[in-house]
């Protein structure tokens, strides 16, 4: 019999770390010190699993998947690590010795916010699933010194603050002193003397990429995975001269020129930043990662000829697309492989996920800039393009426009390299992230590529990890699920389907509603703590949380809020369903319109929340600093999930999945994964409104006239007139002229006015349904029950089987 000694083990280890690692007398330890000590004790256990997992992968020469992503929006690790090791109880006991709860401790950990939004959070959910499924895998990214900016609100406006998440170090990373690679930039290329020979790149500068590993624990397995992040370090020799001459300021400046590559995350998630430093960041982490991959391969295999049999490299969007040229460079220039052989291997090795349909959001780089920063890679891209266009011409002779659209280089005006085209040509599989998005990819922006290679395009609908987004974020609902279904849903989310019958059981519905009420109170407390607003925890909690972007249409939501406000004033004795409308989200620092929308939300909130005629019937709350940890409180407390993007603009969404998983009903357009969510939960348990994608397209083509709608819709006119005339900004009546003008005169690019009526009337249906609390609970339960397919485990299982051909080992 194995004695259960883990509690004493963890408690003992904690005391040992307090004394030896943290350096504090155990009776003097506050929450930060206890957190550090428990984390160190947990780290030890993870480290041992890590060594075992790696040794096993090495011994079996496993085929591995490498997930390259510019962003990983991880959030906190403490709670997740404890859950993965099954150590929550032991840790709680260890904390209790110091009169602390686990919540006290966890709150002290800063979020690792190395990403902007959905794309980065997806990468983090995927790491969790890859570890849990036991896929031999690595994530690769950048160890940003400063992650996503922290948002505060001052005078209704977003203010950005640096996110110095590493200030006090982190127990979850392991610096790998021995692992580093040179990454070169600039200079010129010595062309081969003979055609087909090796080119010599003579770079102008070199920086070292140093590896820092973050441990990614798997759940229900002793497998762990690795997120390897690169930090830029100036080469030791570079500043010696200035240092020797005593000019320390100059030495520091030179050092900074190199090290700024990994300083800060670009606070933007859809448009290319267009800055040279961003290109350097992309190449920096991609080059270091691929050098590392080749080095690992050569430790296990005598040759690179079988690279594609042992290595799958995945491009999370086009940010690492330069990897296609980099692998070619390494194989041909450094390892002497023939171009044709290298190209076959490269294409078989890469796969690519697209994340946007909006052409203006596709990444391109000016040829001139690329020539300046990566001259050898530009040559390689030109050659790839030359051979690709020759192939394409053979399929559609004499169609010049076809070739123009396919080219890796856009002509007409400034020449630019199209990173999506490079990714497609360099990959054997390309996927979208929801069924609609994948269908539209091959019908619209990538139709020419799909004509050439229909078999390369596929769909991988996104998912989220149930460990963080249900087990960790929603302990109340989780324990109800455990009582009802057992604990297996954590690793097999399809087991939630068994709830379909539990919804008929009134005592289950009551317990379910109680859990929701508890979580609403927790959310109400967060609102009160952050902005000082009291909200009624029995009102309908209507939630839109995501990056602030015109296509996501927070402004449409606000038009409904103002409509409701005006109608309450017009009809003060009406039987209004009380609502609390909750927003959270960051705007890119350079995105003026998104920042105006944040300010307008605050101005409208100031009017409505202080209007005594409205009372508790309508409240508007903007929770600052949206991020993973804030989301973990919001998702469980939400009742209505706003997923209202213009049809055809949201690739998938994952916030929609997290909210439904926590029992919120969706009000949404037929966009992204909303469509699949609707199919999974049933038409009666989702509120769909608005134009569909083909209808939006048809109206665009026919010449959409928002002004017409404005003139014909008195309710809408009254709302827009109120905004435009300064009803919410009396101190500056013109403040929102620009916002309204963009709708009326600027063409209303995202069709807010077209969808307004349908949206507002659907909100009335929401009210009606909510009044029948029992019917609402049944629908909420049906939402949870239908969420099995939206586990990231399902998504990663499909990638592993259909794209990566890597074996899960659970
Ligand atoms: C899930 C998530 C997102 C993505 O939300 P969408 O609604 O899909 O855009 C963005 N940020 C954070 C912090 C998240 O957790």
TrEMBL record:
Keywords: Carbohydrate metabolism, Glycosyltransferase, Pyridoxal phosphate, Transferase. It is an enzyme of class 2 (transferase). Its cofactor is pyridoxal 5'-phosphate. It holds the Pfam family Phosphorylase. Belongs to the glycogen phosphorylase family. It catalyses: [(1->4)-alpha-D-glucosyl](n) + phosphate = [(1->4)-alpha-D-glucosyl](n-1) + alpha-D-glucose 1-phosphate. Allosteric enzyme that catalyzes the rate-limiting step in glycogen catabolism, the phosphorolytic cleavage of glycogen to produce glucose-1-phosphate, and plays a central role in maintaining cellular and organismal glucose homeostasis. Phosphorylase is an important allosteric enzyme in carbohydrate metabolism. Enzymes from different sources differ in their regulatory mechanisms and in their natural substrates. However, all known phosphorylases share catalytic and structural properties. PROSITE patterns: PHOSPHORYLASE. This is Alpha-1,4 glucan phosphorylase. Its EC number is 2.4.1.1. SUPFAM superfamilies: UDP-Glycosyltransferase/glycogen phosphorylase.
């Amino acid at each position: 019999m194995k004695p259960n000694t883990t509690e004493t083990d963890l408690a003992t280890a904690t005391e040992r770390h307090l004394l030896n690692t943290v350096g504090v007398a155990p009776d003097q330890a506050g929450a930060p010190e206890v957190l550090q000590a428990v984390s160190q004790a947990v780290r030890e256990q993870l480290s041992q699993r890590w060594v075992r997992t790696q040794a096993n992968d090495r011994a079996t020469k496993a085929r591995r998947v490498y997930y390259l992503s510019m962003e990983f929006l991880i959030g906190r690790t403490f709670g997740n690590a404890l859950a993965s090791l099954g150590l929550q109880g032991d840790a709680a006991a260890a904390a209790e010795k110091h009169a602390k709860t686990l919540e006290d401790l966890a709150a002290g950990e800063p979020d690792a916010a190395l990403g902007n939004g959905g794309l980065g959070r997806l990468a983090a959910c995927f790491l969790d699933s890859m570890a849990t499924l036991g896929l031999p895998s690595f994530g690769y990214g950048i160890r940003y010194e400063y992650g996503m900016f922290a948002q505060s609100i001052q005078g209704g406006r977003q203010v950005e603050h640096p996110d110095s998440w590493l200030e006090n170090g982190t127990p979850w990373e392991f610096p790998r002193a021995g692992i580093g690679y040179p990454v070169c930039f600039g200079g010129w290329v010595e062309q081969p003397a003979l055609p087909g020979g090796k080119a010599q790149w003579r770079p102008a500068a070199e920086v070292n990429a140093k590896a820092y590993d973050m441990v990614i624990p798997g759940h229900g397995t002793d497998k762990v995975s690795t997120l390897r992040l690169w930090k830029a370090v100036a080469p030791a020799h570079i500043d010696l001269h200035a240092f020797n001459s005593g000019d320390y300021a100059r030495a520091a400046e030179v050092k900074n020129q190199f090290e700024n590559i990994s300083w800060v995350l670009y606070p933007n998630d859809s448009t290319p930043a267009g800055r040279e430093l961003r290109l350097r960041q992309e190449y920096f982490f991609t080059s270091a990662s691929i050098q590392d991959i080749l080095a690992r391969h050569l430790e296990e295999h005598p040759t690179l000829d079988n690279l594609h049999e042992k290595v799958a490299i995945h491009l999370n969007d086009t940010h690492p697309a330069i990897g296609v040229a980099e692998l070619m460079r390494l194989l041909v220039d450094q390892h002497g492989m023939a171009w044709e052989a290298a190209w076959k291997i490269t294409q078989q090795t890469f796969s690519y996920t697209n994340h946007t349909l909006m052409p203006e959001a596709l990444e391109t780089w000016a040829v001139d800039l690329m020539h300046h920063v990566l001259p050898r890679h530009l040559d390689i891209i030109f050659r790839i393009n030359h051979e690709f266009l020759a192939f394409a011409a053979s399929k559609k002779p004499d169609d010049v426009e076809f070739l123009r659209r396919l080219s890796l280089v856009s002509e007409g005006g400034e020449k630019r390299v199209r990173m999506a085209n490079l990714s497609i040509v360099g990959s054997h599989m390309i996927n979208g992230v929801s069924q609609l998005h994948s269908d539209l990819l091959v019908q619209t922006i990538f139709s020419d590529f799909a004509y050439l290679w229909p078999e390369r395009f596929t769909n991988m609908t996104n998912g989220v990890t149930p460990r963080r987004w249900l087990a960790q974020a929603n302990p109340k609902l989780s324990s109800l699920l455990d009582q009802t279904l057992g604990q297996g849903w954590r690793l097999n989310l399809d087991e939630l389907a068994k709830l379909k019958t539990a919804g008929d059981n009134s005592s289950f519905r009551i317990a379910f509603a109680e859990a929701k009420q508890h979580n609403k109170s927790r959310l109400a407390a967060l609102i009160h703590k952050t902005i000082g607003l009291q909200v009624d925890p029995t009102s309908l909690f209507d939630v839109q949380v995501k990056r602030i972007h015109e296509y996501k249409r927070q402004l449409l939501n606000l038009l409904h809020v103002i409509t409701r406000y005006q109608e309450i004033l017009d009809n003060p004795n009406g039987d209004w369903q009380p609502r609390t409308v909750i927003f959270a989200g960051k705007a890119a620092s350079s995105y003026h319109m998104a920042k105006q929308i944040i300010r307008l939300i605050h101005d409208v909130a100031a009017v409505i929340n202080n209007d005594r005629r409205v009372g508790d019937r309508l409240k508007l709350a903007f929770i600052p600093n949206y991020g993973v940890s804030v989301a973990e409180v919001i998702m469980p407390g939400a009742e209505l999930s706003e997923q209202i993007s213009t049809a055809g603009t949201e690739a998938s969404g994952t916030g929609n999945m997290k909210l439904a998983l926590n029992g919120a009903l969706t009000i949404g357009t037929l966009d992204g994964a909303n469509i699949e969510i609707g199919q999974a939960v049933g038409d009666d348990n989702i509120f769909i409104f608005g134009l569909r994608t083909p209808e939006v397209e048809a109206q665009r083509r026919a010449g959409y006239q928002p002004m017409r709608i404005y003139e014909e819709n008195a309710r809408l006119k009254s709302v827009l007139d109120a905004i435009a005339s300064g009803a919410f900004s009396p101190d500056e009546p013109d403040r929102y002229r620009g916002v309204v003008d963009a709708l009326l005169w600027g063409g209303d690019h995202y069709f807010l006015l077209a969808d307004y009526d349908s949206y507002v009337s659907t909100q009335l249906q929401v009210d009606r349904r909510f009044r029948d609390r029992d019917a609402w609970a049944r629908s909420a339960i049906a939402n949870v029950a239908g969420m099995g397919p939206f586990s990231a485990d399902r998504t990663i299982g499909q990638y592993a089987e259909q794209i990566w051909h890597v074996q899960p080992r659970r």
